[in-house]
Amino acid sequence: MPDWKILIADGLAESGKAILQSAAQVDDRTGLPADELMQIICDYDALIVRSRTKVTSAVFNAAQRLQVVGRAGVGVDNIDLAAAASKGVTVVNAPVSTTLAVAELTLGLMLALARSIPRADAAMKTGQWIKKELMGVEISGKVLGVLGMGNIGSAVAQRAAALGMTVIGYDPLLHEEQIRERGAEPVSLHDLYARSDYITIHVPLTLETRKMINGQVLGLMKRGVRLICAARGGIIDETALLGALESGHVAGAALDVFAAEPPGLTALVSHPNVIATPHIGAQTEEAQRRASEDIAAEVLAALRKEPLRWKVL
After folding, report:
1. pLDDT tens for residues 9-29?
2. From the candidates 261, 286, 304, 306, which is the catalytic residue?
3. Residues 211-219: what's their mean pLDDT?
């Protein structure tokens, strides 16, 4: 067996750990503080993280043996890619493992917005019968705008169409025919904002997408629009969204991600027309198993210098 050492910083399902342990020495240090990571990273050939651990330039500078960083999930905004490139460290992720879990949560959040399900449940648990206050809307016949038609956006689009929604989509990385093949009518970004009754966001957090949903953009949207975001915190300008909710221009928002996590009991989180969940998009047994097995196999492939399915850089 090669003398590789692999550090797990944020937890991995047992099936994924078993794959790693068949080929390397594995240390599971789930919840490892940042200062301790800095102290021990020099001993490892591979590091596996989720979204909690920040793999900064300082980590890469201290990581003398590091060959590969694996992200057990999709987003890699917690990894300094420029620093990784400068040190010649490969970065891989598991982009398809959580697709169904996030897509299903997105649909659940949309339905919860339409029917005020969290408010209804909370009232029942305090002995209140507020039936007359809970007039909802149907999603059938409504227009869903999908911002980002990658794996997750496409899965949402296909399922929303089955529920009777008209699905329109925008993705600057795809041709119009590709968007059609993925289940949506291709439209311009301006048309998506103007036509949609619901907008769901499925883009990565980058310099270009940070606060792309700002006050100006919210003003372009149809009055009474409902927003769903289970992508990344920071894509929506949360101050601007709060203002649009208070003015009534945005009828409701369902947010699984926030610019700062955990966000605390902010005015946005506590707003009566906001459904807030604690970044649970990928939190299903099936998705966690797939992510663990996929990233374990990919990290070992990188160490073996084999072809990679999901190389970020």
Report:
1. 998 999 999 999 999 999 999
2. 261
3. 98
**Catalytic-role residue among 50, 202, 232, 290:** 232
Catalytic residue among 279, 290, 293, 298: 279
Tell me the three state secondary structure of residue 142.
coil
Q: Matching CATH topology for 5-97+285-303 and 99-276?
A: yes
Superfamily in which the 99-276 domain is placed by CATH: NAD(P)-binding Rossmann-like Domain (3.40.50.720)
- Strand order of the β-sheet with 68-71 is 25-28, 5-8, 46-49, 68-71, 90-93
Angle between the 99-115 and 151-162 helix axes, to the nearest 10 degrees?
Answer: 50
This prediction's pTM? 0.90
Among this protein's residues, is 309 annotated catalytic? no
279 tagged catalytic: yes
Architecture of domain 5-97+285-303: 3-Layer(aba) Sandwich (3.40)
